[in-house]
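Usage example:
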Amino acid sequence: MQRAQADGAYEMWKEVLRRADVQWIHDEVKASGLRGRGGANFPTAIKWESLPDNGLPRHLVINGDEGEPSTFKDRVLLEGDPHALVEGVCIEAYRIGSHRAFIYLRGEFALGADRVQQAINEARAAGFVGTNILGSGFDLEIVVHRGAGAYICGEESALIESLEGKRGMPRIKPPLPIHVGLYSQPTVVNNVETVCTITHILKMGGAEYAKLGVNRSTGTRLAAISGHVKQPGVYELEFGMTLRDIIFGIAGGIRDDKQLKFFLPGGASFQWLINSDEHLDQVYDIDDISAKLGTTLGSGAIMVYDQDTDPLLVAWRLAKFYAHESCGKCTPCREGSGWIEKVLYRMSHGLGRPNDMDALLDISAGISPDVMKAPFTQTTICPLGPSPVSAVASLQKWFRAEVEAACGTEAQA
Amino acid sequence: MFTDANKKRATEIVALYPKAHSAILPLAHLAQDQDGWLSPEAMDEIADYCDTTAADVQGVCSFYTMYKRRPCGNLVVSVCTNVTCLVVGGPEVLERLEHKYASDHDVFVEEVECLAACGNAPSMQVNYEYHEHLTPESAEQIVEDYKAGRLVARGVSGGLA
Ligand SMILES: Cc1cc2nc3c(=O)[nH]c(=O)nc-3n(C[C@H](O)[C@H](O)[C@H](O)COP(=O)(O)O)c2cc1C
Ligand code: FES
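Running the assembly step on the lines above writes:
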């Protein structure tokens, strides 16, 4: 706590209480253009504006479920700077007028949960959390809640179900959680990184923050880079860099003097890119990459694979993940993810059949009718269903010939 | 049954939430840390604290993979084989540990999904404590260190002793 305070922790929280001006927080965050860092990129200030004024208690829920394969940025914040999270939670709770905030962490984050709980205890002892905080009349309790090993609990309505002590199954929307959320009351759900960023925005000023980045992708974000790069890790990136700068500059390029084969620029759930100038010169910009290349920056994970990697094996392992993590509520996802996994298993283990790739496309169409289209369409309640379809679409787009060779398609034809 | 200290703890946990039903997951972690698994009796007791039925608690807990509904020893070793660990040696770590501890009732080796430790892959957790940058040899050494008490383990649900 002493070290955090020496670094300026809780200074902004004190300033917020001193100013007692909710509109100021709102205006700065709106001017900053901050978009959620959990994967959906929704503008945070717009979310706040949708809060209904119906006299019901409001809840703030922080999403620290971080289960998307190869996303590991929130863990760095939780374990490395828990006071920054607590301060951000205080400020956001003040903005929305919530007196009880929940920090939902995936169950495996035992150390993260310990550190955040300790930070809360210290903040309480120092008077930054609790009743009548620093004489302001504002009350806030923060509860750390550990999940128990279910990726789907990262989806905000499933997270709310889980927080209510139920199975983590997504709710049908509308109504959105902002209207009918935790205990059927208005609830703001934000990612760990999003809430931590709010403090920085107030320090810098929203307009100043918006000068960083490009277009509607303002500021910086944490990117988790992994796979066959020389220097994997979590980096703070300014939007607007090229993917080449990120993979070959920041992450040091490919290990062992090998060539890049393909990479996933936005985590496991979205379409892949390959080693081409068009893809590597693409700018790290949420809307631009989606308009030009049909993929997105998702949760900030960048996974990089070298020339010796079998794309079928990666696709199979991802499909296995989604088949395991499907909550079972929607039939197309529950059944379809399992079938995709089975077909990809045989394809990636030397047992592929000549028309397997077409079989995959056919199964995928049951989950996500326009298989190749991005952003995807869906027959399911939540986007987990279409996630393995992104891998299938990527195989079809970039590796059809390699896949056919592996499955003996040409031999038959 | 919860010990007296954990009964007190359970009451405190329930009080953190506007509705007692929300305490099912944290109480299940508490029970699992205490007993080493989540027994039917524990789920009965949790139902009383959370104002619901034992069937409801069982239905909820069976959804979540971290709850072990049969005894699994003192050490839960969770090895990641997801897409980053996959390409840098995770499956080899898993194979070594599964083979070595196949008939050791104290050590439960499981394959898990991404642990958010991909920057230092391959990775595993032992009772939810992270161990990263593994080789099959170093992973085995770590488990041996826990068995011999050279490393102190968390509870089976990741709680501090
Ligand atoms: C299957 C699935 C998993 C998700 N997992 C996470 C997660 O682990 N962490 C997270 O912050 N958001 C996750 N999200 C996004 C949340 O639903 C939600 O959009 C986000 O928490 C909102 O916060 P933000 O606006 O700050 O990004 C997930 C969404 C889906 C569909
Ligand atoms: S893939 Fe193994 S820790 Fe992420």
